[in-house]
Amino acid sequence: MINFFKKKNYKEEIKEELNIFDEKEKIPSHIAIIMDGNGRWAQRRFLPRIAGHKEGMNTVKKVTKRSSQLGVKVLTLYAFSTENWKRPDPEVTFLMQLPVDFFDTFVPDLKKENIKVQVIGFTEGLPSHTRKAVMEAVEETKSNTGMILNFALNYGSRSEILEATKNIAQLVKDNSLEIDEIDETIFESQLMTASLGAYQEVDYLIRTSGEERMSNFLLWQNAYSEFYFTNELWPDFNEKSLENAIGVYQKRHRRFGAL
Ligand code: FPP
Question: What pTM was computed for the model?
Answer without folding.
Answer: 0.93
